[in-house]
Every structure is written in C-alpha cells, then in structure tokens.
Amino acid sequence: MTTLDAAPRAVAPAESDSPLARAAAGLARSPKAVVAAIVCALLLLTALVGPALAPQNPYDLNVLDIMDAKLPPGSESMAGQTFWLGTDGQGRDMLSAMIYGLRTSLFVGVFAGVVALMVGSALGLTAAFLGGRFDTIVMRLVDLMLGFPTLLVALILLALLGQGVGKVIFALVLVQWAMFARAVRGAALVEKNKDYIEAATMLGLSRPRILFGHLLPNCLSPLIVIGTLQVANAIAAEATLSFLGIGLPITQPSLGLLIANGFQVLLSGQYWISVYPGLLLLTLVFSINIVGDRLREVLNPRLAER
Amino acid sequence: MSTPTQRLAVAAIALVTLGGPALAADLVIGTATEPSAMDPLFSRTGPNQNIAMQIFDRLVQPDVNLGMHPGLAESWTNLDPTTWRVKLRADARFHDGKPVTADDVVFSLERARNVPNSPAPFSNNVSGVTGLKALDATTLEVKTAEPTPDLMERIGFVYILERAAAEGKSLQDYNKGDGTIGSGPYRFKEWVPGDRVVLTRNDAYWGKKPEFDTVTIKFISNDAARVAALRSGAVDLIDGVPPADLPTLEKTQGLKVHTTASARLIYLALDGTRDESPFVTDLAGKPLTPNPLKDVRVRTAIARMINTPAIVDRVLNKAGVPAGQLVPEGVQGHDPALKPIAFDLEGAKKLLAEAGYKDGFGLTIHSSNDRFAGDKDIAQALGQMLSRGGIKVNGVVTQPYNVYAGAATKQTFSAFIFSLGNTTPTSGPGLRNLFMTNDPKAGTGGFNRTRYSNPAFDKALTEALSTFDEKQRLAGIQAATKLVFADMPIVPLYWQTVSWASKANIAYEANMSEDTSAALASVAK
User: Fold this and answer.
1) Chain A contacts of B310, Cβ < 8 Å?
2) Which residues form a coiled coil (chain A) (predicted)?
3) A15 lies in a domain?
4) Alpha carbons B46 and B62: distance in angstroms, whole number
5) Does residue A37 fall inside a structural domain?
6) The pTM is what?
7) Which residues from chain B sit within 8 angstroms of residue A66, using beta carbons?
C-alpha cells in the first residue's frame, strides 16, 4: 500500500489524464467489468429501441385480453400470437411488459440519478468553496437527509404527492442529492487549497468559472463512482416503491410492479409473472454495480493499480 | 436399525402431531382487513363488524345463509303496524357480570343514531324509530313512524352496549377497552393497531360455549403473506383466500378450505346525476358537458361492454357468480327474471352512437386495491373492456380502501368499483341504502354514492317495505328492483364466492355475510 501522500495526483486539469479516460482504460483491463458493461449497454439499447422490438404494446388496454391472462411461457394467444415468457393476470405479454418495464426503470433511474448528481454537486461545490454559514446549512441539511431511511422519505413523499413517473423521479432526487453533495464537498475541500485554484483566483476569474471550470473537473472521480452506483440504487428504489404499490400507475407496470403482481401468485404455480422481471431487474442492477465497483477501484487513488 | 434417541424423536414428533388438535385451546386468525375502531357502532363496514360481533351481541343473530334467529331478543311481536314489543332473554350477562336490560338496548339504539365522524353509520338501522321505551328489565317497546314489517332486520343488527360502561366514552376510550364491554362470546383484551386484536373467552356466555381461551386476530393485508402465514403454521385460520391459491391450498395436506357463495355484490357505480363529472372528458381530455353518463343509454352500453363471465373465469379463477341485480338466489327479494346483463359489444356501440357518442368519450376508472379479492385486477379488466367498447379509457387508478371509500362517498369519482355486502334475509335494507334518494335526515340512501334519485322507485320501495303481508312485500321489493335496474345507476358485476382456509384441526362455518369470527370456528371433531 502506498501512502496517501505518495499517491500520484492530478495537479491541474489535464486532457490526457481525465477521469473519464482513466475510467475507460481501467474498465477495459477487467474482463468481469467488460462483460458487465456490455450487458449494461445491451439493456440500454433494448430499452431505447423497445417499442420496435416488443411484440405488443402492453400499455395499450385495447390490445390486452383477459382471456389470455396467466398463460404459461410458450402459450399461444387467441389471436395466434406466441407468448414466449407467458402472460400476466391482465393478459399482457410478459416479454413486452418487461421491455417496456425496463424502459421505465432505466429512464427513472438514470434521470433521477443525473438530476440528483447535478443538484447535489452544485450544492456541494458551492458549500466547499464558500464555506461559512452556507456550508453549515447545506451540510446539516445533508446530515438530516442521510439520517432518514431513503425508502421512508420516498414513501411519505409519494403518499403525499400521488402516483406518476415525474413524482417518483422527484422523490428519488430528493433522497439522493445529499450523497452527491457530501462526496463532492469532501473532494472539493481538498482541491480548493491547491495552487491552481489560487492561481485562478489571482487571475480574477469569476466564481462560477472557478467552481465549474476548474474545481468540478478535479472532483469528477468520486462523482462518477457514486453516480453509477446511485443509478442502480434509484432503479432498485423505484422497483421497491412500485412493489409496495405507490410508485407508477398500474396500467404502466415497471419491473417492480410486474414483480409485485406476480408475487401474489408465486406460490400458486404461476412463477413466470414474477421470476422473469425479477431476473431482469437483478441482471440490470448487478451489472451496473459491477461497473460501478470497477470504476471505484480505478478512480480511487488508494485502490488504483500501478 | 434405530437408536433409542431416534425412536424417542419419532415418538415425540408423533405426540406433537397427534396432540395438536387436543391442545388447540387458542386460536390465531390472520385477517385481510383491520377495523378502524373498537367502538362497535362507529362503522358498519365489514372489518369493524368482524371484531364487534365477537365481543357484542345483537338482538338477532344471523345464520350462515342470512337467516335470522333470536339473539339477545328472545321474541318480538307486532302490537299494531307501528308498535312492537321485544322480549329480551333473561340470562344474558355483560362481561362485567351485570345483566343485559331493556335500558341498555334503548341506550344502544339511541346511540346508533349519532356517532360522531362515523364513515358508515348505523343510523339507517334506527332511522324510522320514533319511540323507545323500557317497560321492564327485559321488555322493550318500539314505536315507528311508518309501518315497518322488517323492523327487526334493521334494529336487530345494532350491537348492544352496556349503558353504565359506555355512556359518555370517547373513541379513544373504546380503543383502549374502556366501554368495550359487551355480552358476546369473547371479551376484549387489547388492540395493537396495525398488528392485532386479542380476545379472551367469556365463560358466562349464554349461547353456544366459546371454544378458545385466547383468540388473536392478526392483520395481514398482503394476500401472499397471509397464505404463507397459514402454510407456515403461524396462524390457524385465514380469511380472504385469493382465488388463485385455492387449488393448491385444497391439495395441501393438513389444510382445509371453507368456501361459500356470498351475497356481496361487486358493482361499477356510474356518476349519472351530475351535469359535469370530474373524470369524464371529451376525446381531447377536456371536461365534457353534459355528462354522457346521465344518459341511461350510455350506462346500459357500458353494462353491455363488460364481459362478466370472462372476469369471473379469468381474473377470479371462477370465484364469483355473474349478477344482474342486488342479491343472489336464496336471498329474499331476488327476482329470477332479472338475468345478468349479456355481453354485447355491437349492441353497446350502437347504443353509444344512438346517444350521440359514436366516437366515445374519455373516462377514468377508480377502484380500491385491498378491499376484496382481485379488486385492482378487475378495475384493469374493466379498462380493457370499456376501451374495446369504444370508450377512451384515460386511466385506471387504484387506492387503498381507507382512502378510497371516503373519497367515493364524497362523489370524487365518475366510474368506480364498489361492493355492498348483503347481510339481511331480504334485499330491502340493501336497496334502501344503495338506491333510495340520499337523505341523511330520513336515513335513506346512506350508501347511495351516485346520488341516484327516482321518485317512482322511492315510492315503490317505501310502499313495499311497509307492507306486512310477506308475499306482497317481496313482490313489491322485486318490482322496485326491476325499476331501479332498468335505470342502471350501477352496473352489477358479480357476487363473490368467498373462502377461508384453516389448519385441518379447525372447522369453520363459511357464511354468506363474509364474517370472520372466532365464534364461527371450532376444533374439528
């Protein structure tokens, strides 16, 4: 183990050694992470072109038929369509429902993660740079947010706000920004006393420019790591909320809601309604987490490989 | 070859298994719904009555087929059309040892008139009563404003409290057990909200001796968790068995399923009275006036779009009977001529076009998601069917019953799924509550959430209900039923088939009123 002092550090923003480039290079060196990244990419692609791929639009009540409900995988519908993964209690093709559910889950997870990242890092950076009362207020707020269990806050919020994609994203951002704020502030506190910031200040650059042009790029490493993991967390949290019945509307099931619907009949032999979406959710969160873990190894100087 | 230890173990297992039934002095029930209060007169919803009926007695006792038998009232006679004399049994004692007197009955019936903040008051049960007098300790005289032949069907179902213990008590007092003193088979011990109610045996009960020392009623709202609790042995008896689980439970050794057709009607209520309805829109999603649901042709069209046999078959695993009126065969007032509305998509579209909505209109369907088996699935299935029938379904929204019921009563929705449990021998009280003009003062239309109002129906039913001749009365009720369903203020969907499941050593009386009560359970012989 090298000591912290001896660890190589970026002194100024340098194009050749940007965190993104290091991340990509580090990722490529681990076969496990490469596989996970490919899985992530494939799932993302599936979600993007989903509607073209899915045999049925499961959100259109008009094409569903309860006469096709709860058919096991491989069955044929009245209209002659084959349900490769079976149907749920409403006669939805599970394969289509999962593709659409994946879209929803990924959209909610990525969107909530990115917004939380932006809000959190802006607040964290400003707090570290300004210090004083603003810093105290923001960090106590962060402590307060982190003190509450994430799901509890989200549950209360959604109980007050009602159902809907926008509301779920709002709730997730509200419970996640604090993680980003704390991590960015920590990194920024170390960076802000370095010479290049002093130099920038001497040059008379504006505060926003110093903050976002100089300080932020050097705090990216923890952000990338936490960002990746938080996207996975957001997906899992959305699934949990939907499972508990207060996330998204029942006519537009996400992966969590599909699992919840199937969970009720899991013991009565209709395993496919719950198991397949469960596996998909597991694969998604698992592969994002592997990529995130690898990024942490690569980007954290203390864990970095020589 | 077996070692002594192994033999001992086998013997021990045998002893435990065989000894099971004999030791079943306690009963643990896993129930789907939690009551909202321990005051028996706070709300007449099923979850509340399930607890109340174990602690308190009523003047009459229903049997499993909705027949009416003497309860605290030993007999009753009609002196003149508006005067009744009710004789109480002398051997009934409250849990604190005091006898049940006519004065306690007067107190309870008076109290039923006005319980503050009650979401589903018992006031309908006593609305026509103008005079209550305790003639002596066990004789009660009741005066009514109108001739009321079905008086006992009304006042008979009010829970009887002890005046000395209950007078002036608040909702919180009852919840803690202060005033929660009845004369029923079990005594109230404690209520831990969100978790359980605990009852203990009332050794001095006048009726059939209660079988269990302690009864613990656990609230397990999640269907799968409730079934799992029974399978794992954590509870002895569960109610609300999900239809999908019936086949496997029936096959499971050591478990028994108790099933009966219920008189609970599941229906789709349509807001057909207001000029503008909150969840009716035009095709662009803007509010639509006049409200198309006001047109009986539109309501009938919606009824024809719904394939109830398919819902019963696919969503409910056959646990239901398609309905065309309020009560099923076997309950008096049922009219064999009123068949379930036939599924007829073409006919529905034609009717819609006739009413001027050839391209349909927008509608959101609301439902509870935890009140009865499959409620949220049925809401979605209705969404499919209405959408096929040419209506633009803007959404299907489901909410927990505790939120939903209050909102529905306040006319928040346009098309919403609700249910009505019939617990009386005739359909009279149900018709009166569901369809008569909503008039809190007169005590009619208490559950009339669509605010349907038809003077001809009101008159026909009132006349029928004040007819003493039984044959004429039932004919009158049937005629009124015909009148109301020609107007289709609600679309009757189906009557539930309900199931309980228990360990094999517990017997349970499956009943049409869907009661879950320790008094209906016993150790299997």
Assistant:
1) 66-67
2) none
3) no
4) 14
5) yes
6) 0.80
7) 310-311, 314-315, 381, 384
